[in-house]
Write a structure and sequence with these properties.
This protein is an alpha/beta fold. It is built from 16 helices and ten strands. The chain has a five-stranded mixed β-sheet with strand order 2-1-3-10-4, with helices on both faces. A five-stranded mixed β-sheet has the order 7-6-8-5-9, sandwiched between helices. The N terminus is likely disordered.
């Protein structure tokens, strides 16, 4: 292990030596996207930051935000993260779900392909790997196809789970295309896979990851919600400013070897393209744009007032708690 990683790993270990949860610490269960090459950013909140806010935080890994919202509505978790599209679709149909803020508004994903696919129009007649219907990969590819006037009836969708499953299926030739994270860029060429379209180039308004809870949780557990958001803000600020610690955490949580280039690549990509917002803002224009795409695809019956599905009050309190 290079010396710089030994030092930063030690620094991270010191950070995580929080005292055991005190009797007055409140429990909070958050559904988090399954660990992969960007997990250092996402999992940093549980490395001392939640404890500093008086929370005993449990991170429950899920393969998609579609699973996260089901867990929230079933009362199995207090919050979840993922694309806000699913939350707004559910809210428009009467579900009790609210967007609190967006910590990763930039979209690092893309449509990767193999074989003779050279343009989005070449996807006609092809099989494309997505995750669950309604989740981000599904929303992304449908929006992309509409942009290039390709009917969804002209392609076949294959529900193949997480990014790694979809990448393996594409590399093996099981599918012709796949919506996967840009983290696979540095290893794709050797597998005969190439990036067809970077999502940020054609869908700059798309929000990747926001934090969601329910109105019931917000009302009943307002103080804990504010503490959780404050912990997220502090954790993202730390992660962006400490690349070595974040990459070490990524490798540990996702079980990625030290010679794998993906964690460093996705860290640099997120910073270079300003994909992260440690202040977890609520960009109304982009949220409305996402609603419009859902209405256009038929997933959402109509445009709703964002006040129904968003609440910036807890975020403002969290910013005050987190300080500067």
């Amino acid at each position: 292990m290079p010396m710089k990683f030994a030092v930063t790993a030690a620094a991270l270990a010191v950070l995580t030596l929080a005292a055991p949860a005190r009797a007055e610490d409140k429990e909070w269960n958050h559904a988090i996207l399954a660990a992969k090459s960007d997990s250092g950013y996402l999992f940093m909140v549980n490395k001392g930051f939640a404890e500093k806010q008086g929370l005993k935080l449990t991170l429950t890994q899920v393969e998609s935000d579609a699973i996260g919202i089901k867990a929230l509505l079933a009362g199995q978790v207090d919050s979840y993260e993922g694309s806000p599209a699913g939350a707004m679709i559910a809210a428009s149909r009467g579900a009790d779900v609210k967007v609190m803020g967006c910590q990763w508004p930039g979209l690092p994903h893309g449509v990767f392909v193999r074989g003779g696919v050279a343009t989005p129009q070449d996807l006609k007649g092809k099989t494309i790997a997505i995750s669950q219907p309604g989740a981000m990969p599904d929303q992304l590819i449908r929006t992309l196809l509409r942009k290039y006037n390709v009917s969804v009836d002209d392609v076949k969708f294959a529900n193949l789970g997480g990014d790694n499953d979809r990448y393996k299926a594409l590399a093996a030739g099981v599918v012709d295309g796949a919506v996967i994270s840009g983290e696979y860029t540095p290893i794709a060429e050797k597998a005969g896979v190439k990036l067809l379209v970077a999502a940020r180039d054609v869908l700059p308004e798309y929000l990747r990851i926001c934090l969601m809870t329910s109105g019931a949780v917000e009302k009943k557990r307002h103080d804990e919600l504010v503490r959780f958001l404050a912990a997220e803000i502090s954790a993202y600020r730390f992660a962006i400013a400490h690349p070595d610690e974040t990459i070490v955490l990524t490798r540990a949580t996702a079980n990625i070897n030290a010679d794998d280039p993906r964690p460093a690549y996705i860290f640099d990509d997120a910073v270079k393209n300003h994909s992260l917002d440690p202040e977890i803002g609520l960009p109304a224009d982009r949220l409305n744009w996402m609603q419009q795409q859902s209405v256009a695809s038929g997933d959402q019956p109509k445009l709703d007032d964002l006040a129904i599905v968003t609440d910036g009050g807890p975020r403002k309190e969290a910013l005050a708690r987190a300080g500067n």
